[in-house]
Write a structure and sequence with these properties.
Layout lengths: L10 E3 L2 E3 L6 E5 L6 E6 L3 H18 L4 H17 L1 H12 L3 H25 L3 E6 L2 E5 L6 E5 L5 H14 L3 E5 L6 H10 L8 E3 L4 H10 L5 E5 L2 H14 L3 E4 L1
Parallel strand pairs: 7-8, 7-10, 8-9, 10-11
Antiparallel strand pairs: 1-2, 3-4, 5-6
């Protein structure tokens, strides 16, 4: 096992680590040399249910956190990323295979910058008030949508996790996110950092195969938005699943 990662990781649900309801696992390997890095949980449907329930429970409190307080949390997350940049870059390189110069100079610093960007964006978000006629005022208020289901690919696992988590937290939403089963380790390490500043259940990390937990997330009635980065083929399935429930979907294909 490599000294930079844990020998095994659980699922991160409701601020706690769990081994999953069925106990199924999969292996994470270094693509450069085939070294076994760690063992992760292959989540089942019941695990996804628990994560979604935890997110909705957390949403009752998180949605009422003021923009200023949410901005402060995002800035703390950015600081934690910077403080642990060397380790996060190494974990990303070991698990993903890209050069350490790239994870050090691009993936990790852009990730912390993304949280800082949305920390600022929160403070500038405004609604709208329009006089339709002399007796009618139309008011538009920006409100959190609820729990967002997010699925990210193998090529930029840490950075794409931050791309999706940061705006959701900024908006007052909660998250259930699933990385690629090929590159889960950096997000699991990130969950350790998030637990230091984010209330339990606001961010939940589910690992496993797309054919299992990933597909079930598309069907789950508990999500109010889906966000997916990956193939066009799967993106069509995500779009169809969202359309059937009349919920928004963000796709990068």
């Amino acid at each position: 096992m490599n000294a930079h990662v844990d020998s095994d990781y659980g699922l991160f649900i409701d601020g706690k680590w769990t081994k999953g309801k069925q106990g199924k696992t999969f292996k994470a390997y270094n693509p450069a040399n085939g070294e076994l890095l760690s063992t992760c949980i292959d989540a089942c449907k019941e695990d996804v249910d628990l994560a979604v329930s935890a997110a909705w429970k957390a949403f009752e409190g998180w949605k009422n956190v003021s923009p200023g307080e949410r901005a402060a949390v995002l800035l703390k997350i950015a600081d934690l990323i910077d403080a642990n940049a060397e380790k996060l870059a190494m974990v990303e390189t070991l698990d993903n295979g890209k050069p350490i110069r790239e994870t050090t100079a691009v993936d990790i610093p852009l990730s912390s910058d993304h949280f800082r960007y949305f920390a600022g964006a929160i403070r500038t978000e405004e609604g709208q008030a329009v006089m339709i006629d002399k007796d009618t005022l139309s008011i538009i208020l920006m409100e959190p949508i609820g729990v967002v289901g997010q699925v990210i690919p193998w090529n930029f696992p840490f950075l794409m996790a931050c791309w999706k988590i940061a705006p959701a937290l900024a908006a007052g939403d909660c998250v259930v996110i699933k990385p690629s089963s090929a590159t889960s380790l950096s997000i699991l390490e990130f969950a350790k950092l998030l637990s230091e500043v984010v209330p339990p259940g606001v961010v939940n990390v589910i690992t496993g195969r797309g054919s299992g937990a990933g597909n079930y997330m598309l069907e789950h009635e508990g999500f109010r938005k889906l966000a997916f980065t990956g193939s066009t083929e799967v993106g069509c399935c995500v779009s169809e699943a969202a359309a059937k429930r009349l919920i928004p979907a963000t796709l990068e294909l």
